[in-house]
Each structure stands twice: as structure tokens, then as C-alpha cells.
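> @MW can you paste both from yesterday?
MW: sure, first one:
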Amino acid sequence: MRRPLPRRTLVTAAAALAGALALAGCSDSGPDSGSSKAELSVSGPYMPQPVSADMAAGFLTITNRGGTEDELTAVTSDVADQVTMHSTMGGAMQEKSSFSIPAHGQLVFKSGGNHLMFDKLKRKPKQGQTVTLKLTFTKSGPLTVEMPVKSATYNPSTGH
């Protein structure tokens, strides 16, 4: 014959089960559930080898797989005194202090569009080298990116 469990054991087991169920209800188990915070990653970074001794451009894509928008507020680099962010619309370039990265979306920096400008280069990066960037966001922690220097005529859609 089985002996009944003490009341204290039952209460502890019930509390543990309730806690586990509460956590399961908050889990991120579904394929489309997404996180309630920003989840940022960087892909395709590159810098065309600069033709000028004091200025260069940079391009990359920031993807946000999370459920909250974030904002890129600053970019710094070991190779330049200053890195500025620019948008290009209708052929006109305008400096921006920040860029939004929508939830479940992307921020694309590409030739002819949004881009980074490296001003007052400390050294002129050459093809085959890498440049280190630090991206700063409103909500997420900073991201460090290694940006390869490509040929001056590099086009990511053709690979050259």
C-alpha cells in the first residue's frame, strides 16, 4: 500500500509546477514568436579601398530579428577620427544622427543609399586589410564589427 505524500512535499511540487507552466507560457518556442527585445546582427560589411588619403566609405546590413525597434546612434572606428552616417535620397546626401532598425527588419547601408563616411583617416586602409567598427545602439549593447577592405570597384552583387 502506498503512503500519502506529506503536505509540504505536495505544496512544493505544486509551486514548482506552477512556476514551470508560467515560464513555458512566456517562452519563445514558436517559429514566429520573436523576442520582445531587439536582436541585432551584422552581415556583409565592407569598405572599398579608399581613393582619397583622408576619407572612405563603408557599407553593411544590420538585421533585427527581435520584436522591438532599436536605433543606431553612433559608429566609431580605429581607422578614422570620425565616422558619420548618411542617407542619400534623390541624389542628395544628408548626414544623420541616427537610423532606426525596425523590429523584424533591416537597416541597409549600400552604395548609392545609406552609407558610413570615415573622415580624417589615421591610415589609408588597403585591400585585404580589415577595419574595426563599434556600433552603438539606443537599447542594445554595442556591436564590434570587422569590416574587410575590398577593391575600390567592389560590387557585392557581382562579387567584384
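MW: second:
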Amino acid sequence: MHLLINIDVPDLPAAEALYTRAFGLTTGRHFGDGGVELLGAQAPIYLLQNAAGSGATAITNRDYARHWTPVHLDVVVDHLEPALDRALQAGLVQETDIRDTDWGRIVGLADPWGHGWCLLQFVNRGYDEIAT
């Protein structure tokens, strides 16, 4: 399987600038005025320009207010505080305190378009610390 990550945004240039600054991604291809490919993660991320209020599904229009969804993106970093500082300076908003766990450290963020993100710093054996 080959995974592609698609993220709808209402402002493509702003999203490209934010994600490249926040997460150290690089711009790949541009797809006219409607999309841009970001590289540097294990899967390519495609930012797709879609206006707020445009049709998203048969029953829902796009809404870029902060929303909860069971799918979010985790970015694994070597050092949490510098990565958090970079993300905040790029325009993400910190939503949770940094939490220490058996497997590492985590902090919750949101981008300006309502998408949830987490920064993770693994310690020791990472998730193997809690795997059975």
C-alpha cells in the first residue's frame, strides 16, 4: 500500500508556508492553483485548495473552524520543545500542555484551518514500552 495524505485548506500559499516552516517539509510539485505537494515525511502530503462552504460530502460542506475528527496527524520529533517553538512561530496553536508518558512526550496543536496535529518525542523504546 502507498499512503497519500490530503489536507483541504482555504488558503494554499499560507498553508504551504506554515507546514514547510513548522515541520521542515519541502515543496514538491504544484498542481495549478489547486494543489501543492509537500515532501519530507514518510508519505507525501497534498494540500488541496477548497473554499470554506464548498461541498465536502453529500451531506456536509467544508468548515475550517476547529473541529474534532478521529483522524489527525502525529509528527515525531527528536526534541519536543524546539519543534513546538518552531510550530508555534509558524502559526499553529498549542491546545494541550506537554504530557509525559511511558513511551515519550506529546503536545496537541491545531492549525489555522481546524486540523489537529500532535508532536511526539519518543523516549527509550517508544511505543514498545507499552506494547504487549
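> thanks! The chain has two helices and nine strands.
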